[in-house]
Amino acid sequence: MDKSKQPFLKKKKKKRSFRRPLSPIQGKRIHHKNISLISRFISQQGKILPRRVTRLTLKQQRLVTKAIKIARILVLLPFRNNEKKLKRTKPTARTPRLRTRNK
């Protein structure tokens, strides 16, 4: 068989390995009393951040979620953050009116 009549052969590409950067809790123990570590994984509204944001493994995310829930039950963390309270800048002036019945 001539080389010109052989089917075109594609070269196989080597697979590239995908390595995630080191997670933020590398080597640290996840415990519900470690508030400084746990508070990194909570949003400003008090919600638990998802894995794609925190860059944790599935096992680490489960442990963090459990620790956050236990800390909330033990009142070490709030269930939600209520910092956005309405502030009155100026009291509204109310004028007293005479109420009369229409007959």
From TrEMBL:
GO molecular function term, any single one: structural constituent of ribosome
Range of residues in the leader sequence: none
Chain intervals for the UniProt region annotation (Disordered): 1-26, 84-103
Gene3D superfamilies: Ribosomal protein S18
Cellular component, GO annotation: chloroplast; mitochondrial small ribosomal subunit
Sequence ranges of Basic residues compositional bias: 8-19, 85-103
Cell location: Plastid, Chloroplast
Record-linked InterPro entries: Ribosomal_bS18 (IPR001648), Ribosomal_bS18_sf (IPR036870)
GO biological process, one term: translation
UniProt keywords, alphabetically: Chloroplast, Plastid, Ribonucleoprotein, Ribosomal protein, RNA-binding, rRNA-binding
Lineage: superkingdom: Eukaryota
UniProt keyword rRNA-binding, yes or no: yes
Chief localisation class: plastid
Family statement: Belongs to the bacterial ribosomal protein bS18 family.
Subunit structure: Part of the 30S ribosomal subunit.
HAMAP family: Ribosomal_bS18
Full protein name: Small ribosomal subunit protein bS18c
Upper classification of the organism: Eukaryota, Viridiplantae, Streptophyta, Embryophyta, Tracheophyta
